[in-house]
Amino acid sequence: MENHIKINGAREHNLKNIDVEIPHGKHTVISGVSGSGKSTLAYDIIYAAGQKRLLDCLSEQVKMFSSQLKQPDINYIKGLTPVVSLKQYKPRKNPRATIGTLSELSTYLRYLYSLIGHGSCPYCNKKFPVRSLSYLIKELQKLPEMTIVELQFPVYKNKSKKYDQFFAQLRARGYKKIEIDGERKDLRDWIQIDQDPESIMVVASKIQIKEEFNRSDIKAVQKSIEEGHGFIRIVIPDLEERRKCESFFQKHGCPEHGIFVADILPSFFSFNDLNSACDECNGTGITKTAYPTMVVKDKKKSLKDGALFPDFCNKRQAFKYLRMYSLAKHYGFSFEKPFDALPDYAKDLIFYGTKKETFPLLRPDDYTKELPRYIAQLGEQVEFEGIINQINREYQESKGRELKNWEKDFYDRFMVNERCQSCHGTRLKPQRQYIHINDYSYYQLGNMELKDLKNFIEDIEIPVEKEEALLPVIDEVRSRLNSLVEIGLDYISLNRRADTLSGGEYQRVRMAGQIDSDLMGLTYIIDEPTVGLHGTDNEKVINLLEKMCAQGNTVITIEHDLDIIKRADYLIEMGPAAGVNGGQIISSGTVEEVIKNDKSVIATFLNSEDNSIDDKKFSFEKNNSIRIVCAKENNLKNIDVSIPLNSLVCLTGISGSGKSSLGIEILYKALWSKLHDPRVIPGKHKHIEGLEKIKDVYCIDQSSVGNSPRSTPATYIGIFDRIRDIFAATDDAIKYNLDHKSYYSFNSKGGCPSCKGMGYLDSHIHYLGDLQTTCPECKGNQYSEEVLEVFYKGKNIKQVLELDFAEALSFFEDNEYIHHKISYVCDLGLGYMKLGQPTNTISGGEAHRLCLAKEIGKVRGTKNMLYIMDEPTTGLHSKDIKRLIKAIRSLIRNGNSVLVIEHNTDVIKDADYIIDMGPGAGKHGGEVVVAGTLHDIIACPESKTGQYIITT
Amino acid sequence: MENKELREQFKKALDSTIEKFQDEKKCLAGFLIGSMSHDLIWEWSDLEILLIFDESYQGSSSYHLLEHNVHVALNIRTINEFKEYLASTNVADYWFCALSKSTLLFCKDITLEEDFEDIFYYGEKDREIEMLLGFSNAVYYLNKAEKNFRVKKNSENAIYFIPQIAEGIAWLEVARNRSIPEREIIAQARKINPDIFKRIYDLLFYEEVTAELIDQILKDCYQYLKENTEEVYRPIISYLNEHGTLKDFSLKTREHGFGINYNWLYRVGIADRYIEPIKINNQKEEFYQIGYRLNK
Ligand SMILES: Nc1ncnc2c1ncn2[C@@H]1O[C@H](COP(=O)(O)OP(=O)(O)O)[C@@H](O)[C@H]1O
Ligand SMILES: [Mg+2]
Ligand SMILES: [Zn+2]
Ligand SMILES: [Zn+2]
Ligand SMILES: [Zn+2]
Questions:
Q1: Which residue range is the domain that position B251 belongs to?
Q2: Architecture of the domain defined by A288-418
Q3: Which residues, judged by CB distance below 6 Å to any ligand atom, belong to the binding site of ligand 1?
Q4: What is the spatial distance between Cα A31 and Cα A41, in angstroms, rounded to a whole number?
Q5: What ipTM goes with this model?
Q6: How close A323 gets to chain B, by Cα (Å)?
Q7: A4-90+502-607 maps to CATH 3.40.50.300
């Protein structure tokens, strides 16, 4: 193998026919201002070439695709090894992916539980070992011969199921007798239940003890254990006989309740296993329930004029309309007054119905629409179950079949997620909580922070006879835990849903997974691994990267963080500027070599010992601030936090210290809930003083742009509509009869019919995932041929989308609206971005700034807004950060407030007020270490942030 | 009268057959079923025996032997098959009826004997459900008979349905009495309630069947059903009393004929009908389903 990846004559995008060498087995950083060509080099050259190579080695069938894959525009590339990319993106919404499943730790822990978990009696907590079926049978055979043994097993009913149904199902499974709290009942009689019993046992069968069980006896025991999900109750009805068996009960189960546990398999704990998942929520841990205020469209309107969403009452659906009218008349509340003004009992009737009472159907004088013939007619008695009840009932009934999209939308609109009532969020059937290791159930273990979990694993005592089976499992668990802890994720827990992780955290979990896979000889491309990490944690990432290299891999990162750059083995600096002004390598080599290179831009930053701290004047005014009282969400320790308005406030602290919990979960969601959507439930806190001072809130994070391949920056900032109008009004358009703007949207009439406007086709190849090939019909142009015949100022619509923002600025000079919007995008350093670049290919940092540009483009006139930004410097070169701060300052000058969650020292130094969270992560964090100006922070020896700023 | 010699010959055949199995360790139990157990035998009767073997049994499930010149029909089940059968069976099953009249010849497994005894427990819930099912069947055929007679003026078809109404009523009577239904169920029910069958069934055989008679029989059927409604529909009426409507009502019945007829309550004026909107499958339109509630 060569010692280098050699790339010769790279010309993709803005690259200027460059030659690059990247050493194998080392950590190389590609740096440079935004838009200089870092990603192009890493992804469009190295990654693309790696993919194509890989496919070329595979079968003929796959080759067909590979010949259509876009070939990177280069002379040659040599010495490439298989390439793996670890990009940053928010994980998709999926309640089934957790840190446990993602890291595969769940798999190993399940195995551990099945090997050394012990059972506990659901009724008295007594502990006893889990046996295998064959062992239990051997022991049963040792009981005195002729003893009659009755086999029972415990069953559990879902909250939403009715007892009648539950019993009928047991009966249908062939059982005739049950015991409810010890009282025997026959399923062939009526069984009345007034209060939820503590235990329900099914009487399964009887066997008689003999020296050698026959197959039917064994089958009986096995079936009871299966039906009891590992739990069986053994009853010896004859007291005399029972006494002789005492030692059997003492040794293997609960002597008082006769409970035994056998045959626990790893799948027993998997919520992705149908047999183990909670029946009610299918293993998601959440159920949906309708929420009253959500069905109200406008509480200032009357029922008559559309207070409710039309799904529930509208003039066109005569029956619903008349029924609502009749309800109001019958129960004496107003159909015409604003919903707001209705008394509580009226709202209760509307939401929860008449509780089986009926009332006559009436007609208001001014309503003439006829009722359909087949339904209740005027004067007939009707019933109303209430809107909320109806939604909930229909939702329950729809379970177990595939929902159509409109149904999903319907339920999403009117229902909220709730913790499942049956499994209390454990996602598992109830029996699972009675298997423990050192007093922890599998679910409880999943709630532990990883560093505690690490200690827990170390404390497990391994029985000698199980060593052989156990040690490999424990080793796997240990090494996986170590990787996660070492990379700074020690504060998360296995039950944490993957889709609640930030892009950076998610990337780090996947990085840890790579280390654990022990693969070697790969080339990794990693996008900004330090995002979201406090400066003090950077060391952890560096260690991990070094470990990957040491395993024999080549690591290429795209980074702006100076800490990482300083520690790189090799540095490639792209530049000098963005777009057409970039695409060159301005310096490369070891860090020392680059520092000496006077063409290098980064050299000045690497050299700078500039630690000057501006002495900013800032005084905290109580009546120009808000105050969060008793914040308790996640790890927050019941704290009060004040946030000054009309200033730049920076929320700092190491990852997991509670920044997002405070800034997003509480502050943002409280505002959003109050101003827009009452379904949003803010994180736990008592109240927020001064909330009324904020007119609206806007949260800018990496996910706000959306990642649809069908959306573009132009649509996102709201200029594409205008551009299509311009095209629809051209002479060409009128000539060809294409004078409607829908022709200029590739998602609509104008799109190429073969690829539906995508420009490429998706193919799926087994093992390789999705591949994209250029659409042969439009050759990637996305539009149908005729539409491309329409020109404006010499360019057709596709060519306009190919313009970058800097070019578009002059192209649309004479259109004030478009020009104005574009100028903000350029101001934030995104001039190199194309108008038509699919948003799913935009990096997190770019998305952030695009979002910011859009907002600033709107601000004129709006005041008293609160902008909350989650790590806006992601993806920004030190030079770009200055621009960002300028943009933020302009928001504040216009009378708004900005709260940023940030680690970047440049931003921290520029902030008016800093709130530093900590001191540690998870349960060791959740407090405000210090709050005040930069000086206050630096002066505080407990503040990790302050100390970090001093040392850099 | 039964031929005494024949019975003796059958007895011999039974004894010699049983002797061969009783000592076999793998054969756990034997039942005598069919005519010899509970009825008269004649020259064309056969001798039916059910044997239960342990799980190692490999042979066929039925054999026809000739023993002392008697046709012996052997049915053989393994213990698991038999226990599964005992778990799932119900009064509508042919074997259930046969077993209820069988004679236990021998049994070496005490748990099996208990399981066997237990299937004949007639619970109150089962009793009421069977009454409802018999009743609903009778209503179904009554509707058919009435339509043919009163609307289509087709007496032949009307007469055809009358014995079926009677059968439904017989099922009800037998269930009310907690008896296991037999094959000749009308005869069985007549012992319990002779009067009703005299009026709706016997007349078909002993009188000239005129239009007046059919009319009278149908009226009597209706009258009988009406009078029994409150008792038979007790579970439903009491649920309505407590909950107002049947929206959340579920009464799981065994798969049988036409299920429970709720509309009858409306026909006899006990319940009133109203409608409630429902969705069907995932069609976007709303449909209206019939609901019932008590007439106040
Ligand atoms: N959605 C969540 N579910 C469970 N725990 C969470 C969730 N979000 C954050 N946490 C936990 O709360 C603590 C604070 O996290 P967070 O507010 O994200 O800190 P920061 O923003 O400073 O990184 C951590 O222990 C974290 O694991
Ligand atoms: Mg965070
Ligand atoms: Zn116990
Ligand atoms: Zn659940
Ligand atoms: Zn196409």
A1: 124-277
A2: Orthogonal Bundle (1.10)
A3: A 491-492, 496, 500, 634-635, 653, 655-661, 917, 922
A4: 11
A5: 0.91
A6: 11
A7: yes
